[in-house]
Amino acid sequence: MPNLKDIKRRITSVTNTQQITRAMKLVAAAKLRRAQDAVTAARPYAEKVMEVMESLSMRVDPQAHPMLTRREVKNILILVMSGDKGLCGPFNSNVFKAAVEILDENEDKGISIIVVGKKGVDFFRRRPYAVVDQFLEYGKNLDISLAQKIAEVVATMFMEEKVDQVYMVYNKFKNVVVQEPQTVSLLPTALPSVEEEKRPVDYEYEPSAEVALDGMLKRYMENQIFQALLESAASENGSRMTAMDAATKNAKEMIEGLTLVYNRARQAAITTELIEVVTGADALEG
């Protein structure tokens, strides 16, 4: 027969765990709301940057800037955006799986990695790849300054020809339940194409289109990275909210099952005691 004290202790333990998972779900829901608002607020700027890039792409030489230069790929850099914490379902594992696919496809090339998030650092520390830089605890103060720092490191490595191709891997937020891993070629920058019939009125750039292109390319890449950071933050909180909701429901089912076992064991113990009392009384009377 199960020990009643052990079952009671187990029920208490699972109940405490349920309280923690429920609290984590509520915190993730609040953070998710803010992350979704941040993604929405950043879209108008991203769209305007894209419009300017489309305009510039028609007026400059595709080889006019080092960030546009395409060369033989001998060394690649992968920017991996993971989370700082776990307990968020498949959020981190999906990103790592996408990154490993790139690594497997480029085994014959030099590999460098920049990691955003502690979980990514832990993952690649156990593997034979060079982590050239890392950015931790980005979720606490997520703003454009972080994207600018990352973009500066990436652009410098590319323009100094330390790497010939840059990929960015992150989770794109679809909804609370669905987050899709994305692999984006960050450098060399691919200028957006514009259909002939949609070409806008021509403009004159001062001091020149090339100078404007230099500034816009940096902002374009910063915006891509910032959007990916926002998407990743929203995805992490959405995945954690879903995972903690499932954990809370599982804990409830486990508590119900343990309570049933406890009641049955208690009833069996009481029945046994009653039988012993009745048997003893009968023995005394006999």
From TrEMBL:
It is a peripheral membrane protein. InterPro entries: ATP_synth_F1_ATPase_gsu (IPR035968), ATP_synth_F1_gsu (IPR000131), ATP_synth_F1_gsu_CS (IPR023632). CDD domains: F1-ATPase_gamma (cd12151). It is found in: Membrane; Thylakoid. Its EC number is 3.6.3.14. Keywords: ATP synthesis, Cell inner membrane, Cell membrane, CF(1), Hydrogen ion transport, Hydrolase, Ion transport, Membrane, Transport. HAMAP family: ATP_synth_gamma_bact. Belongs to the ATPase gamma chain family. This is ATP synthase gamma chain. It comes from hydrothermal vent metagenome.
